[in-house]
């Protein structure tokens, strides 16, 4: 089974992030996580979603694993997970719109896709 490692901060902040309005980012995050959790609940798929910053309260998303870094960044955690999965011959797919993370993940042996393709795969059962 492939594991999808999702750059959650990048997903939520795409299309008009403004750090002056954290409540807007929080609402966008909850809405996006709810949609992804619902799509994932119909599939047998492993999805880990990584957010930057300190651990914070999140809703219940039974089909997802939400991760926060103890130190470093979410990108560092994603790359560490890629290395681990590749070392045990498991497929790793990184979902991001961050070009730097995408290049590093590919160099480590992961496949990289964008958010639209990820959601389309979940919707159409191609995960």
Can I get a quick summary?
This protein has one domain (3-124): 5'-nuclease (Rossmann fold, 3-Layer(aba) Sandwich). Helix 4 links the parallel strand 4 (92-95) and strand 5 (111-113).
Structure description:
- With 127 residues, this protein is of the alpha/beta class.
- Helices cover 46% and strands 16% of the residues.
- The chain contains five helices and five strands.
- A five-stranded parallel sheet has the order 3-2-1-4-5.
Structural features:
127 residues, alpha/beta, Rossmann fold, five-stranded parallel beta sheet, 5 helices, globular
Secondary-structure topology with pairs:
Layout: E1 3-7, H1 8-13, H2 22-40, E2 46-50, E3 65-67, H3 74-87, E4 92-95, H4 99-107, E5 111-113, H5 115-124
Parallel strand pairs: 1-2, 1-4, 2-3, 4-5
Count the strands?
A: 5
Instruction: Write down the overall geometry.
Output: globular
What is the fold-level CATH name, i.e. the topology?
Rossmann fold
The largest pleated sheet is described as: 5 strands, parallel
Share in helix: 40-55%
What structural class results from the helix and strand content? alpha/beta
Question: What's the architecture in CATH terms?
Answer: 3-Layer(aba) Sandwich
């Amino acid at each position: 089974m492939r594991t999808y490692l999702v750059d959650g901060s990048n997903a939520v902040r795409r299309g008009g992030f403004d750090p002056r309005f954290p409540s807007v980012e929080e609402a966008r995050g909850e809405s996006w996580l709810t949609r992804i959790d619902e799509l994932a609940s119909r599939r047998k798929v492993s999805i880990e979603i990584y957010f930057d910053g300190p651990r914070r309260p999140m809703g219940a998303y039974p089909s997802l694993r939400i991760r926060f870094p103890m130190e470093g960044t979410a990108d560092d955690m994603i790359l560490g997970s890629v290395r681990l999965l590749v070392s045990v011959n498991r497929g790793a797919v990184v979902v991001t719109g961050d070009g730097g993370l995408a290049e590093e993940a590919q160099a480590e042996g992961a496949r990289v896709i964008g958010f639209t393709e990820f959601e389309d795969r979940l919707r159409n059962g191609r995960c």
